[in-house]
Design brief:
The protein has helices at about 130-135, 180, and strands at about 1-5, 15-20, 35-45, 60-70, 75, 80-85, 90-95, 110-120, 125-130, 140, 145-155, 160-170, 185-195, 200-205, 230-235, 235-245, 250-255, 260-265, 270-280. Mean pLDDT is about 90; it is low at about 1-25. It is an all-beta fold. It has 2 helices and 19 strands. β8 and β9 (about 125-130) form a beta hairpin. The protein starts with a strand and ends with a strand. It folds into 2 domains: about 5-155, no CATH class; about 160-280, Immunoglobulin-like (Sandwich). The relative contact order is 0.18.
């Protein structure tokens, strides 16, 4: 069962800058203090081996969207600030305002939502975007102390699989509301590359204390009866899967086989969460 989700687009236009450029205050009579953002990125294969930046896309575009003091939240109508770095360098620094007036009448509060994009040399064409920004929840960095840092990973030969799961009693229909109530502490997905014998396992905690999805930040679990969710990198391809529920090392439930979970390369996450219905045997 697949549930389609709507992602929020993150704007990356605005004033482009090179590494180390100060952002000019919008009002020459007002002093706007700057904070230093250190951005770090790695390009890998899903097996952890190093990979080069994507051919023909030699730049990493780092874009910040500021938070407004008046609302203590991202100023979605504001103008982002971007800088282009050599992707192969793996790191770059940029200056971002942490106080004073922004150009839309609000005041910078020193927090910035950050997006990474691997691009052509001009920064206009994008081949890959960081996970959190694809989810519409870019990572927030607080520069109010004068500096801050952020790091991300791009997977060249794969993307991300996204699962939610429900737990049912053996008669079906009587779903269990919590992992603790079901005596389940982890969910293992055995994934087999379609029409091959290549298999990989991805294991998630059955749930998180904050009730959010494992493997990402600030991603809610979809569906009124889902008890957990998880996101993880996996090699590109078409995968079949079976989900198994565990308490410790004891199997306490399994799902029916799921088919045709398609994973795109270039760090991409599919636009749906695959829903696994797991029938428990320990009730």
């Amino acid at each position: 069962m697949k549930r389609f989700l709507l992602f929020l687009a993150v704007g990356c236009g605005g004033s482009g800058g090179s590494a180390g450029d100060d952002v000019a205050p919008p009002d020459g009579d007002v002093t706007v203090h700057q904070g230093t953002l250190t951005a770090t990125w790695a390009t890998k294969n899903v097996d952890g081996s190093p990979a080069s930046c994507f051919s023909g896309y030699p730049k990493m575009k780092v874009t910040g969207l500021y938070w407004a003091t008046e609302f203590d939240q991202p100023e979605t109508g504001g103008t982002p600030i971007s800088a282009l770095f050599d992707c192969a360098a793996g790191t770059g620094t940029m200056q971002l305002p942490i106080d004073g007036p922004a150009d839309d009448g609000v005041t910078y509060n020193g927090k910035w939502d950050i997006t990474f994009e691997q691009t052509t040399s001009t920064g206009d064409n994008v081949i890959a975007t960081d996970l959190q920004s694809q989810l519409g929840r870019p990572t927030t960095v607080d520069l109010r102390g004068g500096s801050g840092s952020i790091a991300t990973t791009f997977y060249q030969d794969g993307g991300y699989v996204w699962f939610d799961w429900l737990l049912y009693g053996p008669t079906g229909g009587d779903y269990i509301a919590t992992c603790a109530g079901a005596d389940v502490d982890k969910i293992d997905f055995a994934l087999t590359l379609h029409d091959t014998t290549e298999t990989t396992h991805i294991t998630f905690p059955c749930d998180r204390p904050d009730g959010l999805t494992s493997g990402a930040n600030d991603v809610e679990i979809e569906g009124p009866h889902s008890v957990g969710g998880g996101i993880a990198p996996i090699k590109a391809g078409e995968w079949d899967y079976v989900a198994t529920a565990y308490m410790g090392s004891t199997v306490v439930g399994t799902s029916a086989a799921g088919e045709d979970t398609i994973i795109d390369p270039k760090n991409h996450i599919t636009i749906f969460a695959e829903l696994a219905d797991i029938t428990l045997t320990n009730r």
